[in-house]
Amino acid sequence: MRKLKFKTKRSYFLALFVVAAAAGGLLVASTVMSASSPTLISFHAVSSDTLKARGTIISVPVDTSATTENSAAIVPSVAAQATAEIAASKAFDGAAVREAYFAHCVSLDVNQDCWAVSLDPSTFETMLPGPLTVAPSTSTDQKLTYLVALIDPGTGRVLTALWGGP
Description:
By secondary structure, the chain is of the alpha+beta class. It has 3 helices and 9 strands; from the N terminus they run ααβββαββββββ. The chain has a 5-stranded antiparallel sheet. A two-stranded antiparallel sheet has the order 2-3. Strands 6-7 form a two-stranded antiparallel sheet. The radius of gyration is 24 Å and the shape is globular. The N and C termini lie far apart (61 Å).
């Protein structure tokens, strides 16, 4: 192994500074990269990739004592989850709850921590006669396989909902 030789102390410290700056830059870059890749939540009925393709990201919240515009602090609890599940089910004609997660939800009109509640869409009907269907991809309509409601943890109101089929 060859030993590096520097002509002056100044060039030695300059080289040391460059190496330290590069290491610091790598550390910052890796932190930023990991911060921009949240842990996504999938439901049994719909994957996080499908939701992401529809413009919605549901991820594990960074801070579980989240604040919203309507409350000082929201601490997820069994009672809060039950309240969110009841609100979601009521909003969608009594649809049965499949799963619920406290999550950070980002979509076109939502960017906050909320309850993401997966509901059984088989009993949910629109104002039009017949069950909800997605745009046909073949000659026949597809039945819904998922319905996810995002519920504000402070008010219990539905922020938005997503539904779709296979």
